[in-house]
């Protein structure tokens, strides 16, 4: 007893400092590479980009020479001028996300519950398109959706679409391209959350008087919500900023999305401030939408 | 839901095969309405498959299942007045306890859902947990909720698949008593699957012992224990001493068997075989141990010349292993009543017991002994 109290109060009880300190530092050391990476390749460019978005053309200078200023009106100008492309981006991305969900959900459901031995093969097939170049595949869709091509002429022959319809270089082609290109990003998270569902829960649902559709509505679908949220975000966010599909499958300026504007401002017209402010507005708009969406989907479903 | 007339559950010649493997083999059972029926057997013997066929989650390959007058062999699970308490509870993780219990009522558009849910939660003594999620409950609480979720629908038959398997021993004993109370209170037919013979015997009115997809024997617990009709039942339900012998005579009352030179008697009613080669059985607690010189009363069966090879004191009783002249060890339980002798290891003893406690069987002496059961519960 006495010894113990001496040990507690006496100066001769050094805390196991070195071990303790190194242990508490370990997490930070482990975070260091990640933080360094993000600082160099994300924070710094973002700050630079923000600076660029406020620049004004150098007086009497050549095209493409800008000086630093704080012209926030750049933002107002950008949004007023490209309002149409902004809304088009979100509409196209929204439609493509809904289509990808409509195609991806049954696909993921079938792979998770009905595929049996074929499951792994089907999963490989879902990601197989990534083995070929994104650009090449998108150009291939130009052939597939050509007005004189097999698909469109068959649909016309079947009277599914009117004889006068044209798909080449239309909004339909752009949305189809986006849907196709982002389908795996929708399907894989859906599959992951469906596959985790314990089949006994579905049996419990039917044991408790739920028919097939009710069990889907009350058990399967709610349990797959994390996958729905993840899949729609992974599709919608890149789709809203995409410019390849609109560039290769659409027609300018009729189907131009905001990504196309940013691209041409940066590389063709060399109007860095407008391009930078458009990028910022796009980022902010996506953040707000995602925030609202997650709030509505219920954060607790995400864990 | 249950009504009083003709709600018996019948399984007739039910067989279930998975490919070439027969999980349930030509099973015929009648489960009277309102009874507590236990299906007892080792892991993998086809208990779950049998329940799943009654629930409609599996279709019999051959045979029919009727509930009262109604043939439900091919009815969809959601169209049967049958509910299941699943082996791992299968509570819906995204719904709170209240909605879990209300699930079946809502599907059937029941009136006064609230009243019935709260009554069911009161029955399992957990009404205060209504707004929790299943993940926040302990195993024992989840088990009760799974029971409430099934019972609230007042099915004609309630199926319980090893519902206590995941609980520790103390909670298990407590839940056994509660299950029994709830069954008495609601008066439903319970079909309770277990691999725990003590659980089956303490809870059920009728026990069916299952092995390799077949029913070995069915009856009241005491009947199965006192007069097992197969060696599997003799070994699986409690312990048995089985000694090989030859039938040498029989009259209308008694069969006489010669075992290793000793003449023993079995009542005809307890002789389950017509073969000449038989296994004679007696339960360890039915055997009386006497000293070597002690006279055996007339009319008792006995083996002389035993040597105590092991004696383990177990509190209420002492378990002896007695080595007989032909090298077989028999188990004897002697109650520690403080009267009568204790026999240290090496003592020479005589074993004796009533012919009425003897049973005779055909077959393999080792079927159903514990070593068969050392496989994980499935
Ligand atoms: N869907 C199935 N496919 C193939 N074999 C199965 C299937 N379900 C059960 N079995 C087999 O049937 C046997 C009985 O299983 P089960 O009824 O679950 O046993 P118990 O519940 O008595 O432990 C086991 O050998 C098991 O492997
Ligand atoms: Mg089982």
Describe this protein with a few key phrases.
heterodimer, A: 303 residues, mainly alpha, MetI-like fold, 2 strands, 73% helix, 1% strand, disordered N terminus, B: 378 residues, alpha+beta, six-stranded mixed β-sheet, disordered C terminus, binds adenosine-5'-diphosphate, binds magnesium ion
Structure commentary:
The complex is a heterodimer of chains A (303) and B (378). Chain A is mainly α. In chain A, 73% of the residues lie in helices and 1% in strands. In chain A, strands 1-2 form a two-stranded antiparallel sheet. The longest helix of chain A has 37 residues. The N terminus of chain A is likely disordered. By secondary structure, chain B is α+β, with helices and mostly antiparallel strands. Chain B contains eight helices and 20 strands. In chain B, a hairpin with a 5-residue loop joins strand 17 and strand 18. The longest helix of chain B is centred in the middle third of the chain and has 18 residues. The two termini of chain B are 32 Å apart. In chain B, 42% of the residues are buried. The interface between A and B is medium-sized, with 18 and 23 residues. The structure holds adenosine-5'-diphosphate and magnesium ion. Adenosine-5'-diphosphate binds next to strand 2 and helix 1 of chain B.
């Amino acid at each position: 007893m006495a010894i113990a109290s001496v040990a507690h109060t006496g100066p001769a009880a050094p805390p196991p400092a070195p071990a303790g300190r190194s242990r508490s530092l370990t997490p930070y050391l482990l975070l260091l590479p990640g933080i360094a990476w993000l600082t160099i390749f994300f924070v710094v460019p973002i700050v630079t980009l923000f600076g660029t978005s406020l620049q004004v053309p150098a007086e009497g200078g050549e095209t493409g020479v800008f000086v630093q200023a704080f012209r926030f009106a750049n933002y107002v100008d950008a949004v007023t001028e490209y309002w149409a492309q902004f809304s088009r981006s979100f509409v196209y991305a929204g439609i493509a996300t809904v289509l990808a969900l409509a195609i991806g959900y049954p696909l993921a459901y079938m792979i998770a519950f009905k595929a049996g031995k074929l499951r792994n093969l089907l999963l490989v097939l879902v990601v197989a398109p990534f083995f070929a170049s994104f650009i090449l595949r998108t150009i291939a869709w130009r052939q597939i959706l050509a007005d004189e091509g097999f698909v469109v002429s068959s649909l016309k022959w079947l009277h599914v679409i009117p004889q006068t319809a044209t798909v080449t270089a239309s909004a339909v082609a752009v949305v189809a391209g986006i849907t196709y290109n982002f389908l795996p990003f929708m399907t894989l998270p859906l599959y992951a959350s469906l596959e985790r569902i314990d089949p006994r829960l579905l049996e419990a649902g039917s044991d408790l008087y739920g028919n097939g559709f009710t069990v889907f509505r009350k058990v399967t679908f709610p349990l797959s919500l994390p996958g729905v949220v993840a899949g729609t975000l992974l599709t919608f966010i890149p789709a809203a900023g995409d410019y390849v599909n609109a560039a290769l499958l659409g027609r300018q300026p009729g189907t131009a999305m905001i990504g196309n504007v940013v691209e041409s401002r940066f590389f063709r017209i060399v109007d860095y401030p407008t391009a930078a402010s458009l990028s910022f507005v796009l980022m902010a708009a996506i953040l707000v939408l995602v925030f609202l969406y997650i709030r509505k989907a219920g954060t607790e479903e995400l864990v | 839901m249950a009504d009083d007339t003709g709600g018996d559950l019948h399984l007739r010649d039910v067989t279930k095969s998975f490919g070439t493997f027969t999980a349930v083999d030509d099973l015929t059972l009648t489960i009277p309405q309102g009874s507590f029926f236990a299906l007892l057997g080792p892991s993998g013997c086809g208990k779950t498959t049998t329940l799943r066929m009654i629930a409609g989650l599996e279709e019999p390959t051959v045979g029919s299942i009727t509930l009262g007058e109604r043939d439900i062999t091919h009815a969809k699970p959601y169209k049967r007045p049958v509910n299941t308490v699943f082996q791992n509870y299968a509570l819906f993780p995204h719904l709170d306890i209240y909605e879990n219990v209300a699930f079946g009522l809502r599907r059937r558009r029941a009136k006064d859902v609230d009243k019935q849910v709260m009554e069911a939660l009161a029955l399992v003594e957990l009404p205060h947990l209504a707004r929790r999620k299943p993940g926040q409950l302990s195993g024992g609480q989840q088990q009760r909720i799974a029971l409430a979720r099934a019972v609230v629908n007042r099915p004609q038959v309630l199926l319980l698949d090893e519902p206590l398997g995941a609980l520790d021993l103390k909670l298990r004993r407590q839940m056994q008593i509660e299950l029994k109370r709830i069954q008495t209170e609601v008066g439903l037919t319970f079909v309770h699957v277990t691999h725990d013979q003590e659980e089956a015997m303490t809870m059920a009115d009728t026990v069916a012992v299952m092995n390799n997809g077949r029913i070995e024997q069915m009856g009241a617990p005491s009947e199965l224990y006192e007069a097992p009709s197969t060696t599997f039942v003799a070994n699986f339900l409690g312990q048995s001493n089985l000694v090989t012998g030859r039938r040498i005579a029989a009259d209308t009352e008694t069969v006489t068997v010669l075992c290793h030179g000793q003449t023993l008697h079995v009542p005809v009613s307890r002789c389950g075989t017509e073969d000449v080669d038989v296994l004679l059985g007696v339960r360890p607690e039915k055997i009386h141990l006497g000293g070597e010189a002690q006279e055996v009363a007339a009319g008792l069966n006995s083996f002389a010349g035993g040597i105590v090879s092991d004696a383990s004191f177990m509190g209420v009783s002492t378990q002896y292993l007695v080595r007989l002249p032909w090298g077989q060890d028999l188990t004897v339980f002697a109650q520690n009543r403080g009267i009568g002798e204790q026999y240290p290891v090496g003592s020479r003893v005589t074993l004796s017991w009533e012919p009425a406690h003897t049973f005779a069987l055909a077959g393999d002496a080792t079927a159903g002994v514990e070593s068969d059961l050392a496989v994980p519960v499935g």
